[in-house]
Specification:
The protein is mainly alpha-helical. The protein contains 16 helices and 7 strands. The protein is globular, with a radius of gyration of 20 Å.
Length: about 375
């Protein structure tokens, strides 16, 4: 792992995006590329982009009652928002698909059921339990990515299903690279492909984890493998994000999903942050954001606060206070669940976390990693 010393660390001058974030960049004002994109969005010709959207949808629209677009959903705000607009604003016939998370939370299951019952055709894909457990454990140990197997299935299975059903369009929610600070490859071209998914969303680990898992049967790996080039040539699939075509606002999405799709928020704030209306579907997300904190120095609260700053709902001083208060939460409430799921001892689990802790940014005190930096 590439390390970054504390004297090299800095934060965006506008939000709290950290210089350790992969693929991030800053301009001469010290503004990260997510904040630069926020400024650019204020001058974009969104009407023109909506025409691009309409042309894309018309290209794939079908009149025979068959599904014309596939939307990966969890029952959360973003997939619900995209599905609602595709069906009710643009008259598409979406097939909504969920790859069931390995450690689902009750609230997530309620929200998914509410979404389906609000009027959507939906399929749940339950990948082979032991296969995804094995792949998730390898992701944790070898990549510091605790649900890598599930994420791979979440990327690959919709493409495989679309190819089998002859659906030529897959719509995800936001382009996290562009919206939150990363590569800008897709800020002018909304369509991307399987190699891009492997490189960016699977962090180059597809070959390292999936293709080398020879101890898992080919049948159990089915939903983790993308269609072959030959299959995609027979059924070309365009993959895109809604955030290219409309100014993305997670809080607006939440309000729409709450009103029209039955979305419920958590009673209290989520683990490691001050918000309560996102990522309520699975227990492993808290571990994912904790490992993100250990590797890069920023966690879930930092991400949420930066979004709130960019949408004008919070000033930077408020955000700093919240991040200092919430970020880097050790998910104590789930540890026993994690040990049982990964089939690890506490010592093995701690060793996996220790392997990914950036020792240039953290020191271990009384069994817990503590930051050597202060968010400013």
């Amino acid at each position: 792992m590439t390390t970054t010393s504390t004297n090299q660390v800095h934060w965006c001058s506008n939000c709290l995006a950290m210089s350790t974030r992969p693929r991030i960049g800053f301009d001469e004002r010290g503004r990260c590329n997510a904040c630069q994109w926020k400024e650019k969005k204020e001058t974009l010709d969104w009407a023109s982009r909506e025409k691009e959207l309409e042309a894309l949808l018309d290209k794939h629209r079908r009149s025979d009652g068959e599904f014309d677009v596939l939307v990966p959903v969890s029952g959360g705000k973003d997939g619900s928002y995209v599905s609602y607009n595709l069906k009710h604003k643009y008259g598409m016939n979406p097939l909504c698909v969920t790859v069931t998370p390995p450690l689902p939370l009750e609230l997530g299951e309620i929200n998914l059921r509410n979404f389906v019952e609000s009027g959507y055709n939906h399929m749940s894909i339950n990948v082979a339990h032991e296969a995804v457990r094995t792949l998730n454990r390898r992701g944790l140990v070898e990549m510091g990515f605790p649900y890598f197997g599930w994420l791979t299935a979440m990327q690959a299975a919709p493409v495989r299903l679309a190819a089998r059903l002859g659906i030529g369009l897959i719509f995800y929610g936001e382009d996290g690279e562009v919206e939150y600070g990363g590569t800008t490859e897709t800020d002018k071209n909304p369509i991307y492909d399987v190699p891009y998914m492997k490189k960016i969303y699977l962090e180059g680990g597809y070959e390292k984890i999936i293709e080398k898992s020879t101890d898992i049967s080919a049948s159990d790996l089915n939903f983790f493998r993308f269609p072959t080039d030959e299959e995609l040539e027979r059924t070309p699939i365009e993959i895109t994000h809604w955030s290219y075509f409309e100014n993305w606002d997670p809080y607006r999405n939440y309000l729409v999903a709450k009103e029209h799709c039955g979305l419920q928020e958590a009673d209290g704030s989520n683990a490691g942050t001050f918000t309560n209306f996102a990522q309520n579907d699975q227990a492993l997300y808290a571990l994912h954001t904790y490992l993100m904190f250990l590797k890069f120095g920023f966690g879930r609260a930092n991400q949420d606060a930066s979004i709130e700053i960019r949408r004008g709902a919070m000033d930077r001083a408020q955000a700093v206070n919240l991040v200092r208060l919430y970020d880097g939460h050790y998910p104590e409430e789930y540890i026993e669940t994690y040990l049982e799921y990964y089939q690890m001892t506490a010592e093995e689990f701690d060793a996996a976390l220790d392997r990914w802790a950036n020792t240039e940014l953290f020191e271990k005190i009384d069994g817990r990693w503590q930051p050597l930096f202060t968010v400013v």
